[in-house]
Amino acid sequence: MIDVSNVRAGYGDGADILNGISLHAAGGEIVTILGPNGCGKSTLLKCIAGFLAPRAGTIAIDGEDVGAVPVHRKVRGYGVGFVPQTDNVFATLSVSENIRLGARHLPRAEREERFDALMRQYPTLAAKQNRKASALSGGERQILSLVRALIAGPKILLLDEPSAGLSPLMMHEVFDAIAGIRDDTGMCIVMVEQNAFEALGIADRAYVLTLGTVAMEGRARDLLADPSMRELYLGGSVAG
Ligand SMILES: Nc1ncnc2c1ncn2[C@@H]1O[C@H](COP(=O)(O)OP(=O)(O)OP(=O)(O)O)[C@@H](O)[C@H]1O
Ligand SMILES: [Mg+2]
Fold this sequence. Notes:
InterPro entries: AAA+_ATPase (IPR003593), ABC_transporter-like_ATP-bd (IPR003439), BCAA_Transport_ATP-bd_LivF (IPR052156), P-loop_NTPase (IPR027417). The protein has 240 residues and is α/β, with parallel strands linked by helices. The protein has ten helices and ten strands.
């Protein structure tokens, strides 16, 4: 579904942050992107989402080169949903207003139908739909931003650190919701994470980045069992 090939990217006229990255993600799988702070994980996700055009290399969705397609067209034309790392809910709007924002380009009837279906699926959020988003806990906000992406009916879901700042209990709740989305819908999910070992627990495959390149990749269960994974991830550099 997503094919990233030898992508180089950076900001303004600054140096390359991504130094030739290749990645593949298919429908029905969770691919997690791991690596130390500043290695380029969010930059890679922003490239796939269309916030940043690659300087070299290609990004394809279902075989079509979409490297130059801007973010709003990625959402409508290619079914890409993006949940950014920060500022992902509008605190002064209600929960239901936040969710409906994700589907403002859809006809009203379709939007309401999807809204009702999601409220049935996420009853704890439904119970708080009239509250201001500022009154939600961190975990509830993460679920809210997920649901806002889901109401657009994406085929591809890009998640930047969905477990950031959560307690272990809430983290597992959010990860369970993400695994459930994969299992129920067959969506293609690319998830950046700091909680590497927990993320590998729900992911199918993983890429570990260091300094804008792929240092390791493989099946999640193989990486979980690989002793160099722990060393590499926690150490943040590659030997040899
Ligand atoms: N908007 C921007 N303008 C200029 N440089 C940026 C911008 N965003 C990120 N960078 C730089 O790009 C590099 C990679 O940042 P990126 O956000 O992709 O890292 P990351 O792997 O997501 O880190 P973290 O784990 O801390 O979220 C960093 O050196 C960062 O300073
Ligand atoms: Mg980041």
